[in-house]
Write a structure and sequence with these properties.
The protein contains 3 helices and 5 strands, in the order αβαβαβββ. With 177 residues, the chain is an alpha+beta fold. The protein folds into 2 domains: 22-96, no CATH class; 97-176, no CATH class. It has a 3-stranded antiparallel β-sheet, covered by helices on one side. A two-stranded antiparallel ribbon has the order 1-2. A hairpin with a 4-residue loop joins strand 4 (151-158) and strand 5 (163-169).
Length: 177
């Protein structure tokens, strides 16, 4: 109707376009990384770390929290879980914007190709984080923003193409299907 055509002319007149995702790259040097075994989700003492330990570590890395457990730090005394290994270079790519599921699948496929050549990494991760104040979440519930607005999932992909899928939602949200 008339309302629709008025909106169309408004959008075209003001040249409002979908925001292009913003991409940033960074290199993390001498990064302490947890040792993982794809078959050991609970981890084993002195052999591998658990999924929970990895998830916590990943949060620290993505938020650029120091991992050296300095007592003088007012921000964090967190340290990398044991056992761990120091990686000379780790690459962090952040894509911010509205990203459709098909693009996420495409990203996953491209990441899996990384293992073909060169075989440098034992595992890699892809974290998809919804906006904390997003109106929707999984299933048919509204997204509850009560405290932190948790709304994310994380793939951990191993060289043998095994993978872990971790999900986090707020206490008032439905669990994902």
């Amino acid at each position: 109707g008339a309302e629709g055509s008025t909106l169309m002319s408004y959008f075209s007149k003001n040249q409002i376009q979908a925001l292009k995702p913003k991409i940033t790259f960074s290199t993390l040097r001498d990064l302490q990384c947890p040792v993982l075994q794809s078959s050991d989700l609970q981890g084993k003492p002195e052999e591998s770390c658990s999924t929970e330990e990895l998830f916590e570590w990943l949060g620290a890395v993505l938020n650029q929290v120091s991992l050296d457990n300095k007592s003088s730090s007012f921000l964090s005394t967190y340290c990398c879980p044991e056992p761990n290994t120091v990686v000379e270079k780790a690459f962090l790519c952040t894509i911010t914007g509205f990203i459709i599921p098909e693009k996420i699948i495409q990203l996953l496929e491209q990441l899996c190709c990384y293992f073909s050549e060169p075989k440098l990494a034992y595992w890699l991760t892809l974290t998809v984080h919804g906006f904390a104040d997003s109106p929707v979440s999984w299933r048919e519930s509204e997204h509850g923003f009560h405290k932190g607005g948790e709304n994310l999932y994380n793939f951990v992909i191993f060289r043998n193409l095994d993978y872990w899928l971790q999900m986090a939602v707020g206490a008032h949200d439905d669990c994902p299907p």
